[in-house]
From TrEMBL:
It comes from Collichthys lucidus. GO terms for cellular component: actomyosin contractile ring. One of its GO terms (biological process) is mitotic cytokinesis. Residues 3-108 form the PH domain. This is Rhotekin. InterPro entries: Cytokinesis/Rho-signaling (IPR051364), PH-like_dom_sf (IPR011993), PH_domain (IPR001849). Coiled coil: none annotated.
Length: 173
């Protein structure tokens, strides 16, 4: 929904006047067909000249004129409580066909997604956690023992104390 589906040159009929056509650069993205005066306006992030809002129930159809000439593409939708119909055409019959198929597929996809396409869902990325260091070996390997007598920590010989404690335990019984 956030990536452009199709883009390119179109002609849009403005108003009711059949002779008032405007060349635009169209971008089908999300729930809109954005129409800019030129491609440079899109790249400079200017406001579009015309925004055609698309919904799940938008109708897209082709005129039944001579297919050798460029057919008109009609987009009927409801915007702010009013039914609105836009008339578009592309510069070649192949481009008109590409736009028609893209619009049909886009409206179909929106109908399949139902309410999920009404609002873009924000997907947050988790911050990387600090790696957990796993200790290798046993507790025996963690005891610090000096490499030679007199260096570092001195670990007392506990075996003598243990034997003394054990022998006193058994003598008392």
């Amino acid at each position: 929904m956030i990536e452009p589906v199709i883009s390119g040159q179109l002609k849009v009929m403005l108003g009711e006047n059949l002779n008032c056509w405007r060349n635009v650069y169209g971008v089908l993205k999300g729930q809109s067909l954005l129409c800019y005066q030129c491609q440079e306006e899109l790249e400079s992030e200017d406001e579009p000249l015309l925004v055609i809002h698309l919904k799940k129930d938008t109708l897209v159809c082709l005129s039944e004129t001579d297919p050798v000439r460029c057919q008109s593409l009609y987009i009927s939708t409801r915007h702010q409580g009013q039914d609105v119909t836009y008339t578009l055409t592309a510069h070649t019959p192949e481009d008109t066909q590409r736009w028609t198929v893209a619009l049909w597929q886009h409206v179909y996809n929106m109908s399949q997604w139902k309410q999920c396409c009404d609002h873009l869902m924000k997907i947050e990325t988790l911050r990387p956690r600090k790696p957990i260091t796993v200790k290798q070996g046993s507790l025996y390997h963690e005891i610090v023992t000096p490499s030679s007598p007199g260096e570092g920590l001195v670990v007392p010989d506990l075996s003598v104390e243990i034997r003394t404690l054990l022998s006193s335990y058994y003598k008392e019984r």
